[in-house]
Write a structure and sequence with these properties.
Elements: H1 11-22, H2 33-55, E1 99-101, E2 123-125, E3 133-135, E4 148-150, E5 155-158, E6 172-174, E7 179-183, E8 204-206, E9 211-213, E10 228-230, E11 252-254, H3 266-269, E12 276-278, E13 285-286, E14 296-298, E15 303-307, E16 320-322, E17 327-330, E18 345-347, E19 352-353, E20 374-376, E21 383-385, E22 398-400, E23 405-407, H4 415-431, H5 446-455, H6 473-489, H7 501-509, H8 515-536, H9 545-552, H10 554-562, H11 566-574
Parallel strand pairs: 1-2, 2-4, 3-5, 4-6, 5-7, 6-8, 7-9, 8-10, 10-11, 11-12, 12-14, 13-15, 14-16, 15-17, 16-18, 17-19, 18-20, 20-22, 21-23
Helix pairs in contact: 1-2, 4-6, 5-9, 7-8, 8-11, 10-11
């Protein structure tokens, strides 16, 4: 994280989190300050803190920091005191200081002007001090060696000083969730060498959730090392500069929840390194560009029009597409889904798709999307039967086709679908992960992530939620048993999955209760199944990775299980 303390890029993971959170607030066009607390704060704390954890020391998944960096952070208040303290002017005497790390304390008062005398300073991280007010002092431009500024979640106000342009070595500027106003730093990119330097080293510009106004600066074009540009949740107006598409290293572009107008530059679709593009909740018009390199594409809640370009089917990197609440018309292009084999999330709701007479049906090639987990087509004009091929979307967790004129019979939803969904939920509970995370790899969800981890014969406890680490051995073994049971239910082959009636017996079996209690709760069959799992879960017999690997490789294991009947034979095989 580059703001709360300054640091690493957070990538697609951060955007995916906020996307899921915003999905529940779909009716709100434009996100003002009042709505930011709900879903953006969750984004920052969940997504960015995870990025911090990867590059420094362990951080709790919900933002509980346990120290930072190799120097640590000294408290700004005495133990047991809740009184805020100010930074003393004497701090300017530390002329040899290279890193000033004072984030998440109870600092108050303005940043002292004397800080400008710290000529050797390379890192300034003071994020999370919510009572740190005032403008960023112009003296900050005198830090010729400064590489990182992290002042997120503070009360820093006013415009950014032009002296920031003097910082030739600056790689990260992160002042999100603050009170900045005015235009984004004038002359940020194309500034003369003698006056401002050129900020050619800048990699992360994170100014989300402020009150910045003006336009998105086209002067960023010379910043060839820029990877993350996050200006969402501000008051920016005007069009999106086409030159942003020429930034060779740009990986994330977040401009959502502003007041941007005009068309989407087609150059963005051809940006070579772009992974995440979020332009939602603006007033953009015109057609959707034809080509996309990004894997995460959110253009929802704009005024885009025209048909969905057929060329989008030739964008194999796309895994997340949200185009809801626009004015997209026409039919879904034939062959749309044939090449989007990694597609996991697709939201085309509240458009005018299918506005022809007669309205078209959903395309039958939808069955090609075997990785799809969320499909939202509600509020359109689709007609005729739902194609039976949708039954091939074995990972589908949400299907929303409400508000259309569909007819006919839905594909039969079997108990095997329920079992798989239960397995996914159980994996979420034991790993603390979401069903889809960028760290899982392209086209992979939590199920495949766990399987891959175990198949590499890595330690099973590494996939268990870090909040559950350090428990007594008995509980550790119960968690591992729950992990194994989740894999049983989430087999990729429906015919290999157990049935729901086995759920209670298996879950009860991982507890170290006596068989009498098991019989009372679930009958003789449940007790037998519980006994089988209990033997496997014996704390005196540490679970080896090979036992869980057997669950992660369903082909061989389930073939053996099919030779017998009932859950008992399967449990014996697992032993």
């Amino acid at each position: 994280m580059a703001g709360g303390g300054g640091g690493a890029a957070h990538g697609v993971h951060d955007a995916a989190i906020v996307r899921r959170l915003r999905h529940h607030h779909r009716g709100r066009a434009g996100c003002g300050a009042a709505s930011v607390e709900g879903h953006v704060a969750g984004r920052r704390r969940a997504g960015r803190l995870e990025a911090e954890r990867r590059v420094t020391v362990p951080v709790g998944r919900h933002g509980v920091r346990r120290g930072w960096g190799r120097h640590g952070a000294q408290p700004a208040v005495r133990p047991g005191s809740s009184s805020p303290r100010t930074l003393p002017d004497a701090i300017g005497k530390l002329t040899a200081l290279r890193e000033l790390i004072i984030y998440h304390n109870q600092l108050a008062g303005k940043i002292p002007v004397a800080i400008g005398r710290m000529a050797s300073l390379e890192v300034l991280r003071s994020g999370g001090n919510k009572n740190l007010p005032g403008a960023l002092p112009i003296e900050i431009g005198s830090f010729s060696q400064l590489t990182m500024i992290g002042l997120a979640e503070t009360s820093i106000t006013g415009p950014l000083p032009a002296s920031l342009g003097w910082l030739k070595n600056l790689t990260t500027l992160a002042i999100y969730m603050a009170l900045l106003s005015g235009p984004i730093l004038p002359g940020l990119g194309q500034c003369s060498e003698s006056l401002f330097g050129n900020l050619a080293s800048l990699q992360q510009l994170q100014l989300s959730v402020n009150k910045l106004s003006g336009t998105v600066p086209s002067e960023l074009a010379p910043c060839g090392n820029l990877t993350d540009l996050e200006l969402d949740n501000n008051q920016l107006i005007g069009s999106i500069p086409a030159v942003l598409g020429s930034l060779p290293s740009l990986r994330m572009l977040n401009l959502w929840a502003n007041q941007l107008t005009g068309t989407i530059p087609p150059e963005l679709g051809r940006c070579a390194s772009l992974e995440t593009l979020d332009l939602s909740n603006n007033a953009l018009t015109g057609p959707i560009p034809q080509a996309w390199k990004a894997g995460f594409l959110d253009l929802g809640s704009n005024r885009l029009s025209g048909a969905l370009p057929p060329e989008i089917s030739g964008c194999p990197n796309l895994t997340f597409v949200d185009l809801h609440d626009n004015a997209i018309t026409g039919e879904l292009p034939p062959g749309l889904f044939q090449d989007l084999l990694s597609q996991q999330y697709l939201d085309l709701s509240y458009n005018v798709i299918g506005g022809n007479t007669p309205p078209p049906p959903p395309p039958s090639d939808i069955g090609m999307l075997t990785s799809l987990t969320k499909l939202i087509l509600s509020g359109n004009r689709l007609s005729r039967p739902v194609p039976p091929e949708i039954g091939s979307c074995s990972r589908l967790q949400l299907l929303d086709v409400g508000g259309n004129t569909l007819s006919g019979c839905m594909t039969k939803i079997t108990t095997k679908s329920d079992v798989y969904s239960f397995g996914v939920v159980l994996l979420e509970m034991t790993t603390g992960r979401r069903p889809l995370e960028p760290s899982f790899g392209e086209g992979h969800g939590v199920v495949q992530w766990v399987r891959d981890h175990l198949c590499r014969e890595r330690e099973p406890m590494e996939v268990i939620d870090e909040r559950l680490q350090g428990r007594p051995d008995t509980q550790v073994h119960e968690m591992l048993q729950a992990l194994g049971i989740a894999l049983l239910f989430a087999s990729p082959r429906p015919e290999d999955r157990l049935v729901m009636k086995d759920v209670a017996a298996l879950l009860r079996g991982i507890q170290h209760d006596d068989s009498v209690k098991a019989r009372k709760a679930g009958g003789a069959e449940a007790a037998e199944a519980a006994a089988g799992v209990r033997k496997w879960a014996d704390p005196k017999q540490p679970i080896s990775p090979s036992k869980l690997i057997a669950l992660a490789q369903p082909a061989q294991a389930q073939a053996q299980a099919r030779e017998s009947s009932g859950s008992q034979s399967l449990l014996r095989y697992r032993e």
